[in-house]
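Why does residue order matter? Because the sequence determines the fold. Keep that principle in mind as you read this record.
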Amino acid sequence: MAASSNDDLVVERPEGLYCPPGDFYIDPWRPVPRAVITHAHADHARRGHGAYLAAARAEGVLRERLGDIRLDTLAYAEAVDHHGVRVSLHPAGHVLGSAQVRLEHRGRVWVVSGDYFVSGTGDANPTCEPFEPVRCDCFITESTFALPLYRWPAQQQVFDDINAWWAANAAAGRASLLMAYSFGKAQRLLAGVDASIGPIVVHGAVQGLNRAYRAAGVQLPPTLLVTEVGDKASLSRALVVAPPSVASSPWVRRFGQPGDAFASGWMQLRGARRRRGVDRGFVLSDHADWPGLQRAIAATGAQRVIVTHGYEAVMVRWLREQGLEAGAFRTEYEGEGGASEAPAAPEGGGDATADNAAP
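Structure:
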């Protein structure tokens, strides 16, 4: 647990992360009167709050997921004053509308990052604004992939591999079931694949979010629900993008016996692929990898860092070794795909079963 003082701009409460001088919460997990939301994933944006504040780019996906809520929005970098706390939102690079929350009060600046993705050269996520470092005194960071073995491959290579897998399945006359989280990951995959290979069919949970992305101006290829496919024979060449919950469900039987794959940062571990029981695992994450976390933290210039959900102990230890003041907050955030997907933290921060593990 992070040590706190009466001067802290963010503290832990049973409802979630609380800003005492501003009297509001950030991504609370229990109902509160006022909530600032970093992004629309279900572990960060929940129903039941009195009023919501989020980035303007998140409005469509928030309403798609939460329905009719009392929502105010800010453009990125636009600021509002609330009880003397200057609040602004800045791109996090995670999903459409994702934001870091900058808090300024009496000369102190804290930033709550939510979830974020830091791209390498040529690896930007085309479906959302890229992460922008925000200078601050204290940075609250996620740690979903805070182990040295997590180093993402080049994005274009991942998409080349996905396209080759899809094309090989199409040539063999079978559909390609690509499982990914409905919000964010699915749209990033759709924006990156070669749509000329065949038709693209999506699950209903993906299609509603596709509409919100398109309404926000994000370019996605045409997608159909399976009930909208007139030429059923074309399903043998289709890429089918659906959430992981469809595995072994009656819905999948409509596609015969498709080749199946899962796209996630956890697919860097062979053990995770075996547990999923899929033909292929593609390493693609919307969270920062180990080098990305290091770059993001350094770019803030923060001398104090508070770590949330993921490998907190590993990250706190590394930060202290760099001479920074570091601690952790206990939260109910789940990172990529929930806690059940994450392997236990190995001793020394390594894992002998990892692909492309680095010292």
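The chain has a mean pLDDT of 91.
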